[in-house]
Structure formats: structure tokens, C-alpha cells
Design a protein that fits this description.
The structure holds two protein chains of two kinds. Chain A is mainly α. Chain A contains two helices and one strand. Chain B folds into three domains: 217 residues, Up-down Bundle (Rhopdopsin 7-helix transmembrane proteins); 85 residues, Helix Hairpins; 154 residues, 2-Layer Sandwich (Heat Shock Protein 90). In chain B, a hairpin with a 6-residue loop joins strand 1 and strand 2. The longest helix of chain B is centred in the middle third of the chain and has 89 residues. The chains are: A mainly alpha, B alpha+beta. The interface between A and B is medium-sized, with 32 and 35 residues.
Chain lengths: 60, 557
């Protein structure tokens, strides 16, 4: 495969990946409304909670 | 709790945006990046286009999405555009890194680097639709924010990583450049402005997320016009002329945009009037400045191109001149050789023909006498011609030898007149000689050469005078110069012909009408010989058909 074509393939992969990511995000938000709405401060999860979960998994 | 929000028009305009700085910082930056993007579509060699394009597009997208977040009231819009912001944000840093590489190392990212960077982006791409970017919608205290998940922190990690790579790359390159001060300064300015842009952006955003106060992140965009102006400055200082013009355009556009965007934050009508007045002055001034500089820079470029062409032509001419000189030398050598070879047989033919005419080999038959005489005459003119060729060869090769003696020029001229009188008589021309009787006209010169010169001139006059007379005279002027003049009533010549007369192979325009065979070398040879004696020759004529006078001037003793 020529260099130019390989370069084109790279950019195609990047664009398609971004499009798919944005498209599934769109479905999640606008079609499935798959996100919680927090009305209480204490319900809001810590963004780094995933690390705590991983940590507790290994502690078990 | 009941939250009341404005409905956004065109996604980005609403009363929800309560801080005017938000529109100011966003619109100014969008306009500058649009200008930058447009410039990359022009034919600019020194600028790394692709990286700048990606930087401009991702930054514009980020700013637009951010405006949507500020102005919008719908949770789904806020959630979606928040996700998009998290997708686009790392691209700004990747584009900046790519720009840094192409600006400093004059190369694009290679395939391995590209795929590696893409691999680093995969978690971001997966986390966005998986709900780890914008986890949920925060309605507490009517905040209207998305709750950011782990993807936001992963993005900050990526951004810090690319910034560190730019910083380390700059330091490494700085040391590599050693004593190249100009290149070092260029590097410092380029990476400095880029790092300022990224640091300001990243710090403001991180603080916005960390302190949960996103109005802080607006200050991050202040670095955008600074970056554009730095980019323009670097290009003006270090890049080619064409890029300079465009960087001036960019710098001026950034200035106009900055002033224009003040209209969005001015809260008093008096301020608006001042801004409009400033713009009214700034726009025509900027236009005049840009067009003036364009004109000047293009003229300089044209002059540089012409100078380059001229230099090349000069070099071509010099080499052509060397070759021509060599060819001329070879030609002179050839003529000299050929003439030498011709002279001996011609002399023999001439001698035997003359002897036959004179009856040395018995009385010639009457029918043979005339042809043999013609042979003798033709050979004589051929011998003279060969002599001319030989003289030229010697003169051009610098091999002409002169034997200087003191002699009476009057006597020599008289001798020549006497020798050529039969030729004049044959054409029924009156040939006279005049000089002051009893006076000597002593000169120090090569007698043979001067005789040949006078002979050439007089022979010429006889040839080109169909009827009338020829008067030869010798005079001395007040500066002790002895002048021989040969005045004829021949075909004469025009004023245009006179300057060409003493050039090699030159003959008067009407010379051919007189049916005279000539090479156009006689006068040239005569001039060279007299000039070798520090004398001069010249000709005068009142016009075609009105006769001519030839002069030979030598220094008297």
C-alpha cells in the first residue's frame, strides 16, 4: 500500500471513530436519555470513584 | 426547587450567559482561529498547515460547544455538548504537539507516532458514549452542569502529557541548536507561545472543573490572541516574504477583531461610540498598512528575483565571453597558419607570371599576354589580402613586431604616391602630392608598417574613386603632430558609415557598387598599426557621392 493511501486510512479510522463515539453519545443522551439527573448534592458521585471501586475489588 | 432559565436562540444566545466576558472571550477566539484557518488554505510553504488546521478546527468546535453549555437550558443539549467537548479537547493538545514538531523539526508526525497517539485517544472515544465523560446532570442549586466522570481526568492526563512532550522537546532542541542564536530565539518564541496557549487553556479548565466554577475557564482563552500575534511575529521575523505578508494580515485581523469584540462587553452606550470610532479609524488604517506592506514586500521579492536572474545572466555572459575569446584565438591561429601556407605558392605564381609577361621565358604570344597579365594582377591582390590576414593574426595574438627608426614621413608618402601613380593613371585619375618644400617631417616609427598603412589608404582611395582626383598632403600642426591627408572625389559615405569604417570586415554601404573586391580588412589593419605607434586615423566625408578624406596622424620628432 502506498504511503498516501496509508495516511488516508489513518485519517478515515480517526474520523469514523470520532463519528461513532459522537453518534453513540447522541443515542445515549437524546434517544435513551440514559443519564441520571442529580437534585441532591450527596447523590453526585465522585469522578474518581472508579479507582476506589478497583481498589476495593483488589482488597477483597 | 423551581429553576427558571431562558430559552437559547440558535443554541448559543440567551440570557443565561450572564457574564459578558464569555461572549467576548469566545467570539474573539473563534474569529482569530477562523482567520488562522483561512490563512492555512493559502499557499504558505513555511507554515505547517495540517497541524494548524486541526488546532483551529478543534479549538473552534470546543469554543462553540462551550457557548452552547453556557447559553442552553435543555439538559440533553448540555449533556451531549459536554461529551463532545471532552472528545475534542485532547485534539487541541495533539494538534499543538504536531504543530510543534513540524515547526521546529520541519517534519510531519510519522505513521508510528500517529497510531500511538490514536491508541491514547481510544479510552476517550470509548468512555464518551459509555457515560464516563458526562456522567449525569447536576440540577443542585440550578447549576445546569454535567457531572464530569473519569474521562475528563483522563483527558487532563493526556493534555499534560502532550504539554510535557512539547516542553521536553523544546529543551532538547534548544540544546541541540547550540550557538545558533537566531534559531534558538525562533524556537523559544514558537514553543513559548504554544505552551502559553495550552497552559492557560488547561489551567483555567482544570480549575473550572476542580472548583466547580466554570466562569474561571473563560480566562484561559485570553492566550488565543497572544498566540496568534506571536505566530505572526515569528513569521515576520524568521519566515519568507510571502508568509510575512500573510502574518501581517493575521496580526492586523487579530487587532481589528479584538477591538470589535469589545462591543460585546461594553455596557454603556458611550463606550460603544468610542469603540465604533476606534474601529472606523482602525479599519482603513489597517487596510492601508496591509496593502502598503503587501506592495513593498512583493516589490522586494520581485527585485530579489530580478537580481538573481541578472546574476545568472552575468555568469552566463562571462562564460560565453571566455569561450568566445578562446574561439577567436583559435580562429586567429588558423588564419595565420592558412595564410602562411598560401603566401609561398602565391609569391611563386606572382613571380613566374611577372617573368613570363616581361619575356624572361621567351616572347609570349599576343593572345597569351593579356591572360597572363590578369593572372599576375589577381595574384598581386591575393598576396595583399593574405598580408592583411597575417597582419590581423599577428595583431590579435600580440605577435606584431615593430622596428622603430627615425625617418622622413614626407619622403615615405611621396614614395607611396609614386608607386601607386600607375594605378591612378590607369583609371585616369589625377594623383597629386603636396608638402612644404625643403622641410623634413621626422617621425620615429616602423617604416614598413607606416608605408603599408599609407599604401592601404591610397589604394583604397584609388579603388573607390571612379573619376576625378586624389590629393595627398603632409602637414605639421601646432602640437608637433604630422598629418597625412588623402582626399579623393570618390563615392564618399554617409555619417552613419564613418564610425563603422575601421571595424573588422567593414565596408562602406556603397562599396559594392564600384565593383571593387575587398575584404574590409585594410582600414582595420591600418588603424591597428597606427594606434600601435600611439597615433590615430580617421575619415571625413561631406556625404554619399561627395568624396572622402582619410587622415593619418603621427607624433613628430
Amino acid at each position: 500500500m502506498q504511503e498516501k493511501n496509508k495516511d488516508k486510512l489513518f485519517w478515515k479510522v480517526v474520523i469514523v471513530s470520532y463519528f461513532l463515539s459522537a453518534f453513540f453519545s447522541y443515542i445515549r443522551v437524546y434517544i435513551r436519555h440514559d443519564y441520571p439527573v442529580y437534585t441532591k448534592e450527596e447523590d453526585i458521585p465522585d469522578a474518581l470513584i472508579i479507582f476506589e471501586k478497583i481498589g476495593s475489588f483488589f482488597q477483597k | 426547587m423551581q429553576c427558571t432559565w431562558d430559552t437559547a436562540k440558535f443554541l448559543i444566545f440567551s440570557g443565561n450567559v450572564n457574564a459578558p466576558l464569555i461572549y467576548y472571550s469566545h467570539f474573539t477566539s473563534i474569529a482569530i482561529f477562523i482567520a488562522l484557518l483561512l490563512l492555512t488554505f493559502l499557499n504558505l510553504k513555511p507554515w505547517p498547515k495540517n497541524a494548524l488546521r486541526l488546532l483551529a478546527v478543534s479549538y473552534i468546535t470546543w469554543l462553540f460547544c462551550d457557548l452552547v453549555l453556557w447559553a442552553n437550558e435543555r439538559p440533553d443539549n448540555i449533556m451531549f455538548f459536554w461529551t463532545i467537548i471532552n472528545l475534542v479537547e485532547p485534539l487541541i493538545f495533539i494538534a499543538a504537539y504536531s504543530h510543534f514538531v513540524s515547526f521546529t523539526e520541519k517534519r510531519s508526525l510519522n505513521r508510528k507516532e500517529k497510531w500511538l497517539i490514536f491508541a491514547l485517544l481510544i479510552p476517550t472515544l470509548i468512555m464518551a458514549p459509555a457515560g464516563l465523560s458526562a456522567v449525569g446532570f447536576d440540577l443542585t442549586n440550578c447549576d445546569r452542569n454535567a457531572v464530569e466522570g473519569i474521562a475528563a481526568y483522563y483527558n487532563y492526563f493526556l493534555e499534560a502529557l502532550f504539554m510535557a512532550m512539547i516542553l521536553l522537546g523544546s529543551v532538547k532542541r534548544f540544546w541541540q541548536l547550540g550557538k545558533e542564536k537566531k534559531q534558538r530565539m525562533r524556537l523559544v518564541l514558537a514553543s513559548g507561545s504554544l505552551l502559553l496557549l495550552l497552559t492557560s487553556f488547561l489551567t483555567a479548565n482544570f480549575l473550572g472543573t476542580y472548583l466547580d466554577d466554570y466562569s474561571i475557564s473563560q480566562f484561559g482563552h485570553i492566550a488565543v490572541p497572544v498566540f496568534a500575534l506571536f505566530l505572526a511575529y515569528i513569521t515576520i521575523k524568521y519566515e519568507t516574504l510571502e508568509a510575512r505578508i500573510l502574518s501581517i494580515d493575521l496580526g492586523t485581523a487579530a487587532l481589528v477583531i479584538l477591538v470589535f469584540s469589545l462591543l460585546f462587553i461594553a455596557n454603556q452606550s458611550a463606550h460603544n461610540y468610542v469603540i465604533i470610532l476606534t474601529l472606523a479609524l482602525l479599519v482603513p488604517l489597517s487596510y492601508t498598512l496591509v496593502t502598503g506592506i503587501r506592495k513593498e514586500v512583493r516589490s522586494r521579492k520581485k527585485i530579489e528575483e530580478l537580481a538573481g536572474k541578472l546574476e545568472k545572466s552575468n555568469e552566463d555572459l562571462a562564460s560565453a565571453n571566455v569561450r568566445l575569446t578562446e574561439l577567436d584565438r583559435q580562429k586567429s591561429e588558423f588564419v595565420s597558419l592558412a595564410s602562411h601556407q598560401l603566401r609561398s605558392p602565391l609569391t611563386a605564381i606572382r613571380g613566374y607570371a611577372s617573368m613570363m609577361v616581361e619575356g624572361e621565358y621567351g616572347t609570349l604570344d599576343e593572345t597569351l599576354k593579356e591572360p597572363v597579365q590578369k593572372i599576375a594582377d589577381s595574384v598581386k591582390s591575393m598576396v595583399l589580402m593574405v598580408e592583411d590576414f597575417l597582419s590581423i593574426s599577428r595583431i590579435e595574438q600580440g605577435k606584431m613586431k615593430f622596428d622603430f627608426t627615425d625617418f622622413d614621413l614626407k619622403k615615405l608618402a611621396e614614395e607611396v604616391v609614386y608607386e601607386l601613380k600607375p594605378n591612378a593613371d590607369k583609371k585616369q585619375l589625377t594623383l597629386t602630392f603636396s608638402a612644404e618644400p625643403g622641410k623634413k617631417y621626422l617621425v620615429s616609427a616602423d617604416q614598413t608598417k607606416i608605408k603599408q598603412t599609407i599604401l592601404n589608404f591610397l589604394d583604397n582611395s584609388i579603388k573607390y574613386t571612379p573619376k576625378g582626383s586624389i590629393a595627398v598632403s603632409v602637414k605639421k600642426n601646432a602640437y608637433d603632430k604630422i598629418i597625412i591627408s588623402i582626399a579623393d572625389t570618390g563615392i564618399g559615405m554617409s555619417a552613419e558609415t564613418i564610425p563603422k569604417l575601421f571595424q573588422k570586415f567593414a565596408r562602406a554601404n556603397d562599396a559594392n557598387k564600384t565593383n571593387v573586391i575587398g575584404t574590409g580588412l585594410g582600414l582595420y589593419v591600418a588603424k591597428q598599426m597606427v594606434e600601435a605607434h600611439k597615433g590615430r586615423v580617421w575619415a571625413e566625408s561631406p556625404g554619399v557621392g561627395k568624396g572622402s578624406t582619410f587622415f593619418i596622424e603621427l607624433q613628430g620628432k
